[in-house]
Amino acid sequence: MATQFRDLSRYRNLMIAAALLVLAVSLAACTPAKGKCGDGVCDSFEQKKPGFCPVDCNATVGENQPDESSATTAITAGGNYAFHINYAIDWQVTCNGVCDAAFIPNQMLYLRGDFSIQPDQSVSGDGILRVIYMEQCQTLMPSNSKCAIGTPADGHFSISGKTSGKKAGDSAETVELTLTLDQLPTLPLTHTVLIPPTEISMDNTTQMLFDGLLKNSGIFNTPLILLATPISGELSQEQTSRAGSYFESDYEFSTVDRAMVHSLHSEGGLLFINPQTALPVIEQ
Predict the structure, then answer these.
(1) pTM greater than 0.85 (yes/no)
(2) Separation of alpha carbons 116 and 114, rounded Å
(3) 85 phi and psi, to 5 degrees?
(4) What is the C-alpha separation between 86 and 200, in angstroms, rounded?
(5) Which partner for 61 in 7, 10, 65, 228 could form a disulfide, CB atoms 3.0-4.6 Å apart?
(6) What is the dihedral of CA 276, 279, 280, 281, to 10 degrees?
């Protein structure tokens, strides 16, 4: 009888282990893989944002980019030019113990700059930073809390620099741009904790997150030496490298005891665009 009981117990344990293995495989198959720009995979996030990662998707930039026929072929004094950076932000929160937080897993920060070349080959201009895409916010304890995203507000930056041209009318081979951040964008985020029979709401803003990411990105306050031939249309990896610079940044903040850690990663590339290109609409 004891032997039979041991056999039944061993059989039950094997069946539980097999069921857990099947469940793990099923969860893995149902969880969409999320990679990074440059990993060779055109994932669902990159597909939603044409032109964000042409290296992976090798797709046309879409309605935010000019047609090949309308692209400017050289940067010269007296001309007006523009660029953009689609800056994707991934936000994750980990908790060691019991804690709660509100966060937005994925966002897209759009930087658009417009500048002109003066007769002395100096550069002047300005630009905006706009949150154009955000996933629905989440909390760590959805059964006991909720969150809501408010209306985003644009940030602003100024542009200075010079070109490699020697005199008016020269076609420059390179253009040096220095972007100076004047005002950070904001994205209000309300975190409401349910404590029956009342609710406690905390109004926050993602401005601190943008500040940390952008300071680490290399986009601002550092001269960017760019090839001065704007490229549009279908972009190969070689063309993307020639068109501008690629930026990547990480930022982390936590409680003093690190019981809760917010980890953010951002990345995106600079591309020249037609100055007539309209600003993208905000998606949520």
Answers:
(1) no
(2) 7
(3) -135, 115
(4) 35
(5) 65
(6) -130
Query: What are the DSSP calls for 44-92, one per residue?
Result: HHHHHSTTS-HHHH--B-GGGS--GGG----B-TT-EEEEEEEEEEEEE
217, two tokens = 């990105």
C-alpha 284/C-alpha 152 separation (Å) is 11
Query: pLDDT tens, 122-149?
Result: 999 999 999 999 999 999 999 999 999 9
Report residue 135 as tokens.
Answer: 């996933």
User: What order do you get walking across the sheet with 246-254 strand by strand?
Assistant: 224-227, 174-183, 155-163, 122-134, 106-117, 80-95, 260-273, 246-254
Can you tell me the distance from the alpha carbon of 240 to that of 230, in angstroms, rounded to the nearest whole number? Answer: 10
Cα(212)–Cα(41) distance, rounded to whole angstroms? 28
Question: What backbone torsions phi and psi does residue 154 show, to the nearest 5 degrees?
Answer: -70, 150
Give the torsion sign (CA, 130, 133, 137, 140). Answer: negative
Mention every residue, 6+ apart, whose C-beta is less than 8 A from residue 166.
121
**199 CB-contact burial (10 Å; exposed 0-12 / middle 13-18 / buried 19+):** exposed
**Phi, psi angle pair for 2, to nearest 5°:** -60, -40
Q: What is the pLDDT of residue 117?
A: 87
pLDDT tens for the chain, 284 residues long, are 444 434 434 434 433 343 333 333 332 333 334 455 656 677 766 665 555 565 566 543 333 433 333 344 466 777 888 889 999 999 999 999 888 999 999 999 999 999 998 888 899 999 999 999 999 999 999 999 999 999 999 999 999 998 876 655 556 677 889 999 999 999 999 999 988 888 889 888 888 889 999 999 999 998 888 766 554 444 444 444 445 578 899 999 898 889 999 999 999 988 888 888 888 887 76
